[in-house]
Amino acid sequence: MQIFWLKRNLRLQDSEPFFESMRAFRKKEKVLPLYCHEPGLTQQPDVSRQHQLFIQETLEELDRDIQLIGGKLLQAVGETVDVLDRIHRVQPLTKIWTHQETTQNSQFRRDKAVAAWCAANGVELLELAQNGIARGSQKSELFPPYFARSVSTKLRDPMGTDLSERFAPLPFPSCDPKAIPKAAGTDKPLRQMGGRSQAIKTLNRFFTVPHLKKYPFQISSPNTAWQGCSRISTYLAYGIVSDREIFQAVDQVVIDAHSRMNADQFGKFQENARFYLDRLSWRRQYMQTFETSPELEFQCMLPQFNGVREADFSSAHSSAHSEKHFTAWKQGLTGFPYIDAAMRFLNQTGWINMRLRATVVSFATMNLWIPTTKVAEYLATEFLDYEPGIHHVIHQLIAGTTEFSELMVFDPVKQGRDQDLDGHFIRKWVPELADVPGPELHDLARTAFSLSKHAENRGYTPYPEAIVDHRATAKKAKDRVSELRRSDPDRQRASAEKSSEKKQDFQQSLF
Ligand SMILES: Cc1cc2nc3c(=O)[nH]c(=O)nc-3n(C[C@H](O)[C@H](O)[C@H](O)COP(=O)(O)OP(=O)(O)OC[C@H]3O[C@@H](n4cnc5c(N)ncnc54)[C@H](O)[C@@H]3O)c2cc1C
What we know:
Strand 4 (95-99), helix 5 and strand 5 form a beta-alpha-beta unit. The protein has a five-stranded parallel β-sheet with strand order 3-2-1-4-5, with helices on both faces. The mean pLDDT is 94. The longest helix is centred in the middle third of the chain and has 30 residues, at 263-292. It has 24 helices and five strands. It is globular and about 75 Å long. Helix 12 packs across helix 18 (388-399), helix 16 (354-367) crosses helix 18 (388-399) and helix 17 (372-382) crosses helix 18. With 511 residues, the protein is mainly alpha-helical. The protein has three domains: 2-130, HUPs (Rossmann fold), CATH 3.40.50; 196-291, Serine Threonine Protein Phosphatase 5, Tetratricopeptide repeat; 295-508, DNA Cyclobutane Dipyrimidine Photolyase, subunit A, domain 3 (Orthogonal Bundle), CATH 1.10.579.10. The structure holds flavin-adenine dinucleotide (FAD). Flavin-adenine dinucleotide binds at residues 219, 229-233, 236-237, 279-280, 282-283, 286, 353-354, 357-358, 361, 383, 385-387, 390-391, 394-395, 398, 509.
């Protein structure tokens, strides 16, 4: 028997491992689609209940789709090697088909354990590349040729085909969903729903001429980004759609625009489409960086930063204080209305737009001086679209622990004023401030101790005073980071050349 192993590649459409397994089927080597709910991974600190429920919704629909083409998905509770062992004893395995993943250490260790199990049991493991990411000594292709190749690839969809003779029967029944161990945290009431049909709905909503035309002007403010961004990140992160499907959707919109616009309008429209594609190019670039340097999950890119914030965070005289700040940030009780609105909104939805992500991370790592890995780990559980390759690299850029970015600290008050001048977003998510009018919301002295009647009725306490002086802490953090960057001049000199090539790209990715 052969296995089509599903991990963060939860689709049949444009799935090379799926089609290759179907092609490789033999009468005595039929294909079993498999997903393992692994207790070891469920307990990892970057996994949360919302991720788990999103995956389960996706699997439910995937199983229905597999049944429509003649097979059945086996869902099992257990570490993958134990599940493989169990299947192998009932029905010997010959091949396992799956995607290569650029992923966090816990899942990479799982993949290595599976590779070792396959080697020990004479089973061939076929991990096919995706997202144009190069592994090991392979060289990664530049984005333009990768994009061009992707849009001219014919994407395959098995739906509507009878493949029943290629699928293996289940060697034992799928697990009872109640037996799946629960990850930490609670679900988020306003998060995106799992499943391929939701992904396609999201794709069809956004990839139209009017949406792509407005995209560059709507992504920075949380008041417009919810509708103005494509919201496709979560479906990409779990492989429910492929990057090629997104590229082809953009390409199709550009073709539509060409038939409707004059040359001048079309030229401008192409720039907007390129603006969107830039982001997909950064996605791939960050993931490639993480593929080559997976230690960035735990270590700073510049080693002189390792342990510095951690030591300050846990030092005897400031530890309680730091923990209090960290908790206030997580709960949206820092006394900075724009930050608090963002954290509370995130807590309900599992998503915030990119600029706002950068603002809350800058506040945590610079103004509050919380260790970058602690911030990244917490936000990994909060972001439904957690993509380790993007997530950990961007955190380092904002915390100033790389050689690639100019030092920047996002001023939490200025960002609020720039992106939410009238305070629509703040008032909605911080009900204590519902009575504070318009721009006064950006005056911290005015917001401290405010408590609207409405918030009081819902059991809120008065809105807190600012927990730090944001100007003083920003200056202190910048001085400290600059000093640490200077503290390793040899390395700085050696990396200057390398850095100047990449610097521009990396910095652009935050704006
Ligand atoms: C601190 C921080 C952490 C982040 N963590 C994640 C994460 O875990 N997962 C994740 O997918 N994105 C992450 N991003 C990038 C970005 O914020 C999200 O991709 C985006 O907000 C997702 O919403 P969207 O799909 O509507 O994006 P759109 O604006 O519609 O962009 C389209 C796609 O382009 C890619 N993209 C957009 N911006 C970036 C960027 N700056 N870098 C790399 N790729 C980008 C994403 O795949 C996204 O789905 C992070 C950004 C910051 C500042």
